């Protein structure tokens, strides 16, 4: 018998019989207990922090803004967990690896509370649900541990079937309100049946664990990356078999501290002030709509952070006076216990002035520099991987060395951990054999961690602790204990939520006014009022003069002087209305209309010309009327002309005052 025939015969003997009947529906999940009462005081679950330069020139320029969403450190109130453990039980899992996986599952079972639910799915050539979603009560924990102990290895590796079954358990459950659904998928090999890349997990986070040097790290990362918030973990258990419990404990520590779900951040630029060049949110999905750019994060653990780099292009406002510019608005949304919450809108404000940017004074804040450096650090790891995958390890190492040098100029608490990460990768990029066995999966898990801003195991859960939370540190120590030692189920004591912090407003330089208005002198309201008065007076002047008509030869239309006065007042009325409307727009929307120096010159010129025409027309009409009265005496016709001349003269005064304001506006910009 040939070797291939022997292998096929061995597989058939160890595979379960084929069953073409459709699987039963997974709607038999156990009803969870009522939710725990909330904290006595309202809890601020998420805090938005903005980091950016406080100053920028009026000339066009680019600005980087870091928006940080930080989860509350208190877990007195968290989302109950619906967890499905999808476990590889194929033939390659035999021996110590299967035993270590069982131990890790027992740790998970013991750490869950009666408000959490667990289901176990196993897969080899086929997939099967070991148990329905059950509440992790003390009685259920004993049953679950007994089911785990009975698991044995056999068959090939069909990751697709295991993942689809796990998703079906979650999608078909009856009780979903406010519950956080997650999958932990573990395997030690590459798929040889089906293709798990074709499975769409939707919004269910899938956290994958690749055991040893034989697993397909690219596949496991692709599965996690396709889900919302899932991460790939490299478990190097070839040298340290007990590391499985430690690695599982880190992901579980996050899952049992989920404080918000469906978290998303929306950034909207004020189009007259700035446009968005780029939004860097790692591998989290983004969407663009009329209300701005929205980033979807999914779940957020207690004390976790999500940082987004927004690159803004500020518009050219060199014709403006220095002013505080609202360049963008930000808000976030999330759900908890089935309810939707939306934050208040916060503004990103930058003071813009004529001062040329100084490299030292106007440098981005340290937080912005550190986040930009971390993203470049991740890009360097990706570039080094691409070189190493093409068997160019020397260039790959050179890229990592240059990334190390770039960190020398930074002073940030995370920098030491980034250096440690690069030193470890340099060791794993020494030879092709080491790279394929450990280097590639370690680099992929590093990229997954930086892209998701979430802890991942890079071979060893203790080595690189970037993005680890305090709860993860606690669980790590507990996972190192012997399997027969008791482990507390819930580490949440009678915590009181942190009081909502008093957030200080964004700082404005002390040597400048707090919020000067752009584009105009502080008398813009007075200017608008004078424009309106001039329009009303001119309207009254030409209306009264035009109504001074008789049936005889002394009609106002018969005299060129009066026709000239009526025409000038009509022009002044129309001009004043246009200017008043423009002033009102600028009062309501302070930066809705960009004005150049030439527009101020034009306003001053028209104000002066029309003021001259108005006073000359009023004087001519007054002289003509005085001459008529001196010869023929007063009558009703003369009185109307006299009243119209007075309104025209008052309109001249209002227009002259506006000419002075236009002159002040122009000279303030020269």
TrEMBL record:
Pfam families: CASP_dom, VWA_3, Vwaint. Residues 11-42, 478-509 are annotated as: Disordered. Its main location: membrane. One of its GO terms (cellular component) is plasma membrane. Residues 82-251 form the VWFA domain. It is found in: Cell membrane. SMART domains: VWA. It is a multi-pass membrane protein. Keywords: Cell membrane, Membrane, Transmembrane, Transmembrane helix. The chain crosses the membrane at residues 528-549, 561-582, 603-623, 643-667. Residues 479-496 have a biased composition (Basic and acidic residues). Belongs to the Casparian strip membrane proteins (CASP) family. This is VWFA domain-containing protein. It comes from Urochloa decumbens.
């Amino acid at each position: 018998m040939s070797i291939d025939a022997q292998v096929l015969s061995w597989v058939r003997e160890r595979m379960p019989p084929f069953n073409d009947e459709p699987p039963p529906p997974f709607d038999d999940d156990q009803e969870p207990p009522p939710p725990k009462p909330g904290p006595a005081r309202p809890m601020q679950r998420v805090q938005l922090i903005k980091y950016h330069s406080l100053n920028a020139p009026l000339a066009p320029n680019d600005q980087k803004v870091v928006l940080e969403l930080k989860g509350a450190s208190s877990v007195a109130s968290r989302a109950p967990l619906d967890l499905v453990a999808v476990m590889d039980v194929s033939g390659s899992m035999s021996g110590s690896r299967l035993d270590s996986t069982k131990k890790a599952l027992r740790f998970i079972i013991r750490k869950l509370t009666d408000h959490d639910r667990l289901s176990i799915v196993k897969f080899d050539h086929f997939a099967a649900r070991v148990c329905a979603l059950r509440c992790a009560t003390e009685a259920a924990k004993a049953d679950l541990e007994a089911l785990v102990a009975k698991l044995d290895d056999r068959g090939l590796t069909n990751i697709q079937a295991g993942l689809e079954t796990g998703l079906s358990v979650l999608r078909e459950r009856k009780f979903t309100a406010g519950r956080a659904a997650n999958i932990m998928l573990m395997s030690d090999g590459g798929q040889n049946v089906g293709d798990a890349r074709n499975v769409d997990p939707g919004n269910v986070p899938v956290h994958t664990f690749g055991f040893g040097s034989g697993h397909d790290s690219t596949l496991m990362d692709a599965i996690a990356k396709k889900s919302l918030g899932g991460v790939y973990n490299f478990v190097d258990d070839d040298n340290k078999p007990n590391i499985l419990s430690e690695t599982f404990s880190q992901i579980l520590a996050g899952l049992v501290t989920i404080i918000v779900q469906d978290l998303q951040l929306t950034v909207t630029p004020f189009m007259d002030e700035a446009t968005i060049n780029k939004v860097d949110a790692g591998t989290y999905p983004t969407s663009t709509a009329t209300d701005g750019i929205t980033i979807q994060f999914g779940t957020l653990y207690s004390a976790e952070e999500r940082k987004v780099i927004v690159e803004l292009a500020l518009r050219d406002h060199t014709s403006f006076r220095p002013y505080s510019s609202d360049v963008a608005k930000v808000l976030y949304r999330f759900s908890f216990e089935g309810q939707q919450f939306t934050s208040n809108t916060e503004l990103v404000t930058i003071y813009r002035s004529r001062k040329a940017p100084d490299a030292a004074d106007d440098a981005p804040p340290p937080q912005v520099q550190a986040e930009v450096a971390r993203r470049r650090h991740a890009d360097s790891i990706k570039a080094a991987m691409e070189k190493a995958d093409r068997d160019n390890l020397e260039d790959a190492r050179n890229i990592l060395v240059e990334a190390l040098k770039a960190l020398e100029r930074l002073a940030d608490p995370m920098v030491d951990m980034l250096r440690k990460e690069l030193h470890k990768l340099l060791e794993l990029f020494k030879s092709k054999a080491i790279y394929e066995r450990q280097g590639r999966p370690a680099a992929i898990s590093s990229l997954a961690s930086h892209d998701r801003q979430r802890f991942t195991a890079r071979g060893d859960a203790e080595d690189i602790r970037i993005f680890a939370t305090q709860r993860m540190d606690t669980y790590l120590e507990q996972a190192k204990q012997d399997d027969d030692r008791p482990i507390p189920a819930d580490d949440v004591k009678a915590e009181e939520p942190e009081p909502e912090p008093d957030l200080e407003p964004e700082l404005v330089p002390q040597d400048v006014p707090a919020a000067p208005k752009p584009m105009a002198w502080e008398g813009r309201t007075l200017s608008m009022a004078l424009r309106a008065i001039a329009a009303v007076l001119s309207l009254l002047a030409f209306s009264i003069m035009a109504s001074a008509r008789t049936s005889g030869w002394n009609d106002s239309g018969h005299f060129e002087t009066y026709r000239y006065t009526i025409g000038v007042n009509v022009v002044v009325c129309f001009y004043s209305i246009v200017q008043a409307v423009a002033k009102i727009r600028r009062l309501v929307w302070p930066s809705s209309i960009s004005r150049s120096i030439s527009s101020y010159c034009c306003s001053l010129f028209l104000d002066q010309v029309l003021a001259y025409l108005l006073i000359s027309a009023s004087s001519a009409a007054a002289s003509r009327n005085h001459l008529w009265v001196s010869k023929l005496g007063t009558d009703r016709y003369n009185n109307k002309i006299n009243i119209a001349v007075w309104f025209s003269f008052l309109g001249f005064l209002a227009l002259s005052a506006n000419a002075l304001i236009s002159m002040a506006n122009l000279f303030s910009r020269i």
